[in-house]
Amino acid sequence: MGRTVIGIDIGGTHFRVGRVGADGSVADFRKLPTADILCSGDVLADLAGFIRDYSGGGDVQAVAIGFPATLDRERRRVLQAPNLRFMERLPVVEALSRSLGVPVFAERDVTMALCYDVEKYRIPDQGIVCGIYFGTGIGNAVNIDGRPLLGKNGVAGELGHIPVDGSAIPCGCGNAGCMENLAGGKYLARLERERYPGTAIGELFLRHGGEPLLREFVDRMAEAVATEVNILDPDCVLVGGGVPNMAGFPREYLDERIRFHARKPCPAEGLNVIYTEDEREKSVVGAARYAWRRLSA
Asked: Which domain does 167 fall in, by range?
């Protein structure tokens, strides 16, 4: 395959990895239980050992890792990872670069996803591009002229943690009443358990999409998107993740409500919203593309 970058997406449940060429071609994609990879109690040694074995002595130019977490501004350490507490504060980049002998790049997984989608949908680098991904929670990344918005502490784009008046639901971030607990997959799972116990979660919108509880849920998703739209006035908004890609999900209603909540006349007029697809290798290819761009900078 020639020169490659190893792209990795580490989730609380699954560990995805692949070798990706500069043209985006993928070889040896694997989806493994995270617990099977990070199992010894020494996370950095586990990661380095797995990557070394996986590379098989190939021509690896770099390793790029996406985390469901906040990272420091320098993108050297994981700050907070509710589903990967054992990785917090570890010098991931420094330790792995030294152990593997190649550049290692760390970023939020949602930034890697946006990197993939920007290329797939041929979004220009100029201007403001927002990626909002509704999965278990709400992932959010913002590019300004092709560069990720970091913020003072490196934690810009935490749209899922805007407060919702009247909600006291505890959040993994340590606060209570965060939007992602009312407009993410965790809330759908709760609805399935408490209100629709006879319906598989994957069929909620197919069977009950027109009912008030699910309409309210979609409207809260729209409120989250419109909040960012009203603040940033973006050139383009990419909306994706597992929830908008569920069977029967009412994208037309979500789009209608986003525009309802967006300020008039602008940015509501001419708002460019693109709905992205979920793809098996997306997070891995996005991580690798992020690394290829960093290598060529």
From this structure: 123-275
